[in-house]
Amino acid sequence: MATPLKLVVLGLGYSASAFVAAGAGRFSSVVATVRTAASAARAATSGIEVLALDDPATGPRLLAAIAGADAMLVSVPAEAGGDPLLPSLGAAIAAAPRLGWIGYLSTVGVYGDHGGAWVDERSALNATSPRGLARIAAERAWLDLGAASGKAVQVFRLAGIYGPGRNQLLSVADGTARRIIKAGQVFSRIHVDDIAGACLASLDRPAPGAIYNVADHEPAPPQDVIAFAANLLGLAVPPDQPFETAVLSPMARSFYMDQRRVSNGRLVTELGYVFRHPTYREGLGALFASGEGVSGESAARENPP
Predict the structure, then answer these.
(1) Are 152 and 146 in contact (CB under 8 A)?
(2) 62-105 residue pLDDT tens
(3) Which of 6, 31, 114, 139 would you label with 49, given CA atoms 20 to 30 Å apart?
(4) What are the beta bridge partners of residue 34?
(5) Residue ranges per domain, the chain?
(6) Alpha-carbon distance 277 to 207, whole Å?
(7) What is the DSSP track for 225-249?
């Protein structure tokens, strides 16, 4: 059995929480950050020390946790110029004597538009949006830290995330799902279970500087996913809405400007990862079997792809 690890999580969000839960038996301690004291109170759970970044007492406690950490997962939204925590924590992370694995959660949005072609980890980073450019800068900063310090930094580029409490079954059930039709448009997506699984597979095989696309096997039109969810629930499929005339927020509309299919080949071949949910069908099927969308809870949407 592997020796239990001390884990630090920068940004205890949806995906990071799934990683901590899936790897519970692997970690002897978990110290995780959130932005505010209110968030810390909501995130408080057995076995995790949750630190609020707006609490003056957090600084020394976080630095001590980093100094003793064996592994670190970074799930902090990038800001203009890159990662917001690296300027203050980079030196401590580089100096941490036992830190043997750092996973940075990024997004496939860094690829930008590829005209519907397949992309892999060697593909050009064509992002032009402020969000995409910030992620590219953050990725580079973490990889540079790894190269300079000898730390095994891995980057995971995540497709559109769905899972418990965040999926199309819920939006179909409460009537908010929209089938936006744009000819030829597909998105890649990933179940949160497989984000956790991919990161845990990497934890067993640290690869300094490695980048992995974390997307399932089947990029698909978003309207097909909604129709599948509706059919599972036995509900009417929402009507088509042409993209050209649909009322969308600027952010939602921006996601339709990029067209690409994301390959997960490196994750499968180099880490030998076997997906729990190879496509949205298995993922939504498992969520439906667990009761999602059938008990009247309010909807939470899939993250924008």
Answers:
(1) yes
(2) 999 999 999 999 999 999 989 999 999 999 999 999 999 999 99
(3) 139
(4) 52
(5) 5-164+189-218+261-278
(6) 25
(7) HHHHHHHHHT-PPPPEEETTT----
